[in-house]
Amino acid sequence: MKKGDTVYTPRFCTVVITEVYEDPCKAFQEGYKEPTHYAKDPEYEILGKNIGDNRMAFAAIRK
């Protein structure tokens, strides 16, 4: 998975990946905490963070 990819998540529908992390702790420190319930790719978890009124950013985190 890479920046700019679009993926379907059950919670937020189609989202654009803005960051990719190898370390889950680093993603959590940068605010990516909202679960998306993504389960299609067993190697990655997709988490979101709030970046303003009704706006979210999404990151792919390697499990």
Main beta sheet strand tally, sense and closure: 5 strands, mixed
Tell me the number of helical segments per DSSP (H or I, 4 or more residues long).
1
Q: In order across it, which strands form the biggest sheet?
A: 1-2-5-4-3
What do the pLDDT scores average to?
96
How much beta, percentage-wise? over 45%
How much helical structure, as a percent, in the residues?
under 10%
Total count of domains = 1
Q: What is the number of E strands? A: 5
Keywords: Plasmid
Q: How would you describe this protein?
A:
The chain has one helix at residues 24-29, and strands spanning 6-9, 13-21, 34-35, 44-52, 55-62. By secondary structure, it is mainly beta. The chain has one domain. It has a five-stranded mixed sheet. A hairpin with a 3-residue loop joins strand 1 (6-9) and strand 2. The longest helix is centred in the middle third of the chain and has 6 residues, at 24-29. 17% of the residues are buried. The mean pLDDT is 96. Keywords: Plasmid.
Keywords:
single chain, about 60 residues, mainly beta, five-stranded mixed β-sheet, 1 helix, globular
Topology summary:
Blueprint: E1 6-9, E2 13-21, H1 24-29, E3 34-35, E4 44-52, E5 55-62
Parallel strand pairs: 2-5
Antiparallel strand pairs: 1-2, 3-4, 4-5
Keywords: Plasmid
Summed up, what is this model?
The chain has one helix at 24-29; strands spanning 6-9, 13-21, 34-35, 44-52, 55-62.
